[in-house]
């Protein structure tokens, strides 16, 4: 348990209708006594005056008290819901500062205490960070599932199966010399370990879907100069994010906008037009285009005439491509069959709904049951690969001693424990909790 009591503004920017100040730590009762003159009934909102240290009321507000361990952090916590004026909040802060043993919280410190007090494992903590940051409906759904422990429960059930298997092996190793122990108790576990291995493999294969939901589908607009790339990003962003001129080679920096498409985050990149050029700045732009292409999930390959050169994209990018014919308002004749997947115009809006629907086809299908719990971070993915690898080795190593197979299972369990934050994650904690805002 922490002996410092912390406080922070947990609601958003000021001014606001209501500001929520959260307090957590052993001094919480004392703080409420000092500020409000009495303790509210636990978990009931009570309208009370908030006083400074001279006893002057600085505001009235709803006060809530959550005695630990049945609180978010597991410690005694309180919430003051006061008026969200800057001066009011400042006055409340100085009243809190005046109480010895109290200090302002650091980013993520409430969640960190919740983790350290066993209220949430690390996966749930990450889900909570994602939930606070969620912009789209699908980000919200995935994060809510993770924050409420969906993914944690899955990993816990796997950990249990591993523990059981290891216990059976230990028993066999310990009692191997005793004549009346039946031959291979441990043999019975390998069927389940094979099933578990398959579960892990399936789960890993959904990692890209999880990553796309959380971080967005990366869609790069590429093509020759003047194809209309910047015009398209402006049209879809509904604002002038990129410079558009009729000069070929206008765009040099890669810039991006975030779109919400069917509830999914899509990050759309505008890039420098691809061509051979002596211009130093434009060449740097093209180098950056290549870097974005290497990271793309999907490329929109734009051109304003069917015979324009687009092969240079294929030399750096081999993923899915939607071929887009542009400026259809200006085209005098139809393009030869098979030269474009969709024809658009940003002047008339023609073809845009079809283009969006085609992009939508590359969004993950998380309507299915597997949407329950997807790995969302590289950290999960990396550890899952270790689980999978060691589990596979344990299963395959039938020809070696049981003690060696047990060691592979121990390593698999260890990697699983790292995901939940149960084993050696000290160095990770600062990274994870710094993602939070103050007050969470
Ligand atoms: N009529 C018509 N003109 C368009 C359309 N889209 C783009 N243009 C024009 O085409 C020219 C080039 O457009 P940009 O969006 O700058 O093309 P870009 O591909 O970004 O060009 P670079 O950045 O130089 O590679 C501009 O004059 C645009 O106004 C369209 O749908 N219809
Ligand atoms: K241009
Ligand atoms: Mg451009």
- In CATH terms, what is the fold-level topology of the largest domain? Rossmann fold
| Bound heterogens, unique | guanosine-5'-triphosphate, potassium ion, magnesium ion
| Number of discrete domains | 3
The CATH homologous superfamily of the largest domain is termed: P-loop containing nucleotide triphosphate hydrolases
Radius of gyration: 29 Å
Question: What's the helix count?
Answer: 15
Count of beta strands: 12
Give the helices and strands as they follow along the chain: EEHEEEHEHHHHHHEHEEHEHEEHHHH
What is the level-2 CATH architecture name of the largest domain? 3-Layer(aba) Sandwich
Helix and strand content put the structural class at alpha/beta
Overview of the structural elements:
- The two termini are 18 Å apart.
- By secondary structure, this protein is of the alpha/beta class.
- The strands form two sheets. It has a six-stranded mixed beta sheet with strand order 3-4-5-2-1-6. Strands 8-9-7-10-11-12 form a six-stranded mixed beta sheet, sandwiched between helices.
- It is 42% helix and 17% strand.
- The chain contains 15 helices and twelve strands.
- The chain folds into three domains: 5-105, 2-Layer Sandwich (Gyrase A, domain 2); 124-206 and 375-433, tRNA modification GTPase MnmE domain 2 (Four Helix Bundle (Hemerythrin (Met), subunit A), Up-down Bundle); 213-360, P-loop containing nucleotide triphosphate hydrolases (Rossmann fold, 3-Layer(aba) Sandwich).
- Residues 229-230, 242, 250-251, 270 line the site of magnesium ion.
- Its main location: cytoplasm.
- This is tRNA modification GTPase MnmE.
- Its cofactor is K(+).
């Amino acid at each position: 348990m922490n002996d410092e009591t912390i406080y922070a503004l947990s609601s958003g920017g000021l001014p606001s209708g209501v500001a929520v100040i959260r307090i957590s730590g052993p001094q919480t009762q004392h703080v409420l006594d000092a500020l409000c003159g009495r303790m509210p009934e636990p978990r009931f909102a009570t309208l009370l005056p908030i006083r400074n240290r001279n006893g002057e009321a600085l505001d009235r507000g709803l006060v809530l008290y959550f005695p630990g361990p049945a609180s978010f952090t597991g410690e005694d916590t309180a919430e003051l819901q006061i008026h969200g004026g800057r001066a009011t909040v400042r006055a409340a802060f100085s009243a809190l500062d005046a109480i010895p043993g109290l200090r302002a919280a650091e980013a993520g410190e409430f969640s960190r205490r919740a983790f350290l007090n066993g209220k949430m494992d690390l996966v749930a903590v990450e889900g909570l960070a994602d939930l606070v940051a969620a912009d789209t409906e699908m980000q919200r759904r995935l994060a809510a599932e993770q924050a409420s422990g969906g993914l944690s429960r899955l990993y816990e059930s796997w950990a249990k199966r591993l523990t059981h298997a290891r216990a059976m092996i230990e028993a066999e190793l310990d009692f191997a010399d005793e004549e009346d122990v039946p031959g291979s108790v441990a043999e019975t576990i390998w069927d389940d370990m094979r099933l578990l291995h398959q579960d892990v493999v399936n789960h890993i294969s959904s990692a890209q879907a999880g990553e796309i939901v959380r971080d967005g589908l990366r869609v790069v607009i590429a093509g020759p100069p003047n194809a209309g790339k910047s015009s398209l990003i402006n049209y879809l962003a509904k604002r002038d994010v990129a410079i558009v001129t009729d000069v070929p080679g206008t765009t040099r920096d890669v810039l991006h906008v975030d779109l919400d498409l069917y509830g999914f985050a899509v990050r759309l990149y505008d890039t420098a037009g691809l061509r051979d050029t002596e211009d130093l700045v434009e060449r740097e732009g093209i180098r950056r285009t290549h870097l974005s292409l290497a990271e793309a999930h999907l490329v929109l390959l734009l051109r304003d005439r069917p015979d324009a050169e687009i092969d240079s994209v294929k030399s750096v990018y081999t993923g899915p491509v939607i071929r887009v014919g542009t400026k259809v308002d200006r085209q005098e004749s139809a393009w030869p069959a098979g030269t474009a997947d969709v024809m658009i115009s940003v002047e008339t809006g023609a073809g845009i709904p079809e283009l969006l629907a085609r992009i939508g086809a590359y969004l993950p299908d998380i309507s299915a049951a597997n949407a329950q719990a997807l790995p969302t971070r590289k950290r999960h993915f990396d550890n899952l690969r270790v689980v999978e690898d060691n589990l596979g080795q344990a299963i395959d190593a039938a020809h070696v001693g049981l003690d060696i197979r047990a060691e592979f299972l121990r390593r698999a369990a260890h990697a699983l424990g790292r995901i939940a934050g149960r084993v050696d994650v000290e160095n990770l904690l600062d990274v994870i909790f710094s993602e939070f805002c103050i007050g969470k």
